[in-house]
């Protein structure tokens, strides 16, 4: 029998079996066995005012702020012929160093635990040729991308070991922070957990003219967590509470040297199941963007929350801390990045203008529908449902007309207070606007263009989306706690002419 803690975890060790039982068409191999170990490295403030390490006996000791946070390398195109930027990436295993002195076997894009960043240009198409050097099937989803269905990373469109595929990205959307990751059905949680994730940034002239921090001062930061055993290996399929090794760009609790000036940080939550509650310990930062790009105006705040799959862009001005740092970025009470601020003063031509970028018009809705997310706890192992059914790739669950505007009421139907599941909702192909939450108006953090939105326990979100796309075909909507999607919490969304 499952106890309450195990049921709340819904680790993918159970998820893979559940999906295989309910979806015979998946035909996916079992995930790698998980090591039966846990770690707790959560730092605490010692008497001397320093953050000291703590760890369970079975896990690695993580001394905070002993590694510099790397910036993911920018991938150069292999060709620019015909106005198309062509890239090549191998999906391959590699040993990476997350905790100093330990080698962690990982799945990587081009050998990097945070895959290489692709900086694309709006209006200029790109192709990425992925070759699978793993011993398991894989595929690639450009999260937030407006792409044709055969380049969307459909869960059943898989690259067998040794196979290659060219994904086509038209980049016809406005500037935004996107990311690419594995979406192989029943294995997506395992593969992303082991490292198949990277940034894809779309840039355009309208954004460059604003004068925001750029170049070395525009830094993508991938946040996630994991459980490691004493050897440094990933422990997969356990309870999310045991994923206490918190990483920024693949390093456990790193430091990052900064100049006393403004920085733009593109923050991505790539954790399987975690909500980051980020702050500078009460100091102010400025939110400028979300999943689908810049907000209409900057928003000063002292805390920002991002659920799995979401992105938030903030500007932090370190000039106020020149010579009197460091500054810590916290997740709740846990410091996860230490910013070491250089002394003195430097020239800073960047700015945060009072007006950023207007949002596109909402359109006039002609269709309203309700989409539900829930867990069926009566089965062993349990399964995850959308509109009361687990995912079936042969079944069209929702059909929308290209060019129309719809309102979706996304409802978390897990009503049992003993199992308070939350579900971040992600729609492929399109960005949307949140127009209501829990029966009332949207919250301030709901502002802007979104493709992923947090739906709390027993909560609901009302969103509006216009399918202004040239593409038709099969797409998805699903919970972006990837262990839930692996359990079947996905629906097929067909876009019709």
UniProtKB/TrEMBL annotation:
GO terms for molecular function: copper ion binding; oxidoreductase activity. It comes from the Bacteria. Residues 1-20 form the signal peptide. It is an enzyme of class 1 (oxidoreductase). InterPro entries: Cu-oxidase-like_N (IPR011707), Cu-oxidase_2nd (IPR001117), Cu-oxidase_C (IPR011706), Cu-oxidase_fam (IPR045087), Cu_oxidase_Cu_BS (IPR002355), Cupredoxin (IPR008972), TAT_signal (IPR006311). Its EC number is 1.16.3.4. Keywords: Metal-binding, Oxidoreductase, Signal. The keyword Metal-binding applies. It catalyses: 4 Cu(+) + O2 + 4 H(+) = 4 Cu(2+) + 2 H2O. Residues 93-206, 251-318, 373-495 form the Plastocyanin-like domain. Belongs to the multicopper oxidase family. Monomer. PANTHER family: BILIRUBIN OXIDASE, CUPREDOXIN SUPERFAMILY PROTEIN. This is Multicopper oxidase CueO.
């Amino acid at each position: 029998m499952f106890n309450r803690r195990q049921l709340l975890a819904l680790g993918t060790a159970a998820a893979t079996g559940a999906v295989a039982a309910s979806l015979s068409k998946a035909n996916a191999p079992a995930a790698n066995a998980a090591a039966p170990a846990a770690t707790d490295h959560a730092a605490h403030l010692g008497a001397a005012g320093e953050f000291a390490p703590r760890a369970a006996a079975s896990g690695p000791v993580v001394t905070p702020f002993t590694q510099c946070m790397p910036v993911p390398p920018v991938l150069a195109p292999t060709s620019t012929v015909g106005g198309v930027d062509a890239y090549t990436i191998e999906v391959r295993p590699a040993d990476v160093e997350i905790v100093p002195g330990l080698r962690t076997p990982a799945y990587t894009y081009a050998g990097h635990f945070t895959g290489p960043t692709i900086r694309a240009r709006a209006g200029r198409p790109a192709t990425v040729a992925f070759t699978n050097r793993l011993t398991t099937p894989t595929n690639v989803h450009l999260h937030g991308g407006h792409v044709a269905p055969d380049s969307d990373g459909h869960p059943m469109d898989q690259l067998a070991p040794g196979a290659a595929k060219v994904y086509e990205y038209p980049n016809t959307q406005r500037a935004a922070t996107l990311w690419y990751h594995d979406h192989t059905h029943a294995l997506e949680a395992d593969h992303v957990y082991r490292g198949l994730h990277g940034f894809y940034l779309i840039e355009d002239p309208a954004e460059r003219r604003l004068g925001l921090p750029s170049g070395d001062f525009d830094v993508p930061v991938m946040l996630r967590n994991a459980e490691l055993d004493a050897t440094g290996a990933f422990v997969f399929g356990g309870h999310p509470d045991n994923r206490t090794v918190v990483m920024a760009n693949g390093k456990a609790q790193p430091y990052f040297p900064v100049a006393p000036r403004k920085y733009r940080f593109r923050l991505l939550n790539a954790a399987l199941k975690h909500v980051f509650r980020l702050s500078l310990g009460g100091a102010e930062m400025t939110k400028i963007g979300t999943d689908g790009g810049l907000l209409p105006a900057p928003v000063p705040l002292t805390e920002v929350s991002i659920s799995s799959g979401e992105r938030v862009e903030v500007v932090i001005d370190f000039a106020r801390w020149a010579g009197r740092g460091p500054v810590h970025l916290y997740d709740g009470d846990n410091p996860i990045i230490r910013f070491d601020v250089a002394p003195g003063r430097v020239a800073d031509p960047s700015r945060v203008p009072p007006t950023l970028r207007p949002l596109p018009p909402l359109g006039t809705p002609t269709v309203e529908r309700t989409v539900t997310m829930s867990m069926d706890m009566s089965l062993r192992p349990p399964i995850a449902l959308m509109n009361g059914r687990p995912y079936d790739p042969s079944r069209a669950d929702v059909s929308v007309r290209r060019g129309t505007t719809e309102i979706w009421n996304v409802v978390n139907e897990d009503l049992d207070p003993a199992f308070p599941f939350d579900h971040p909702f992600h729609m492929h192909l399109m960005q949307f606007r949140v127009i209501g939450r829990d029966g009332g108006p949207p919250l301030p953090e709901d502002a802007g263009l979104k493709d992923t939105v947090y739906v709390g326990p027993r909560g609901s979100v009302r969103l509006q989306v216009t399918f202004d796309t040239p593409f038709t075909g099969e797409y998805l909507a699903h919970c972006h706690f990837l262990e839930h999607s692996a359990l079947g919490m996905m629906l097929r969304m067909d876009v019709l002419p």
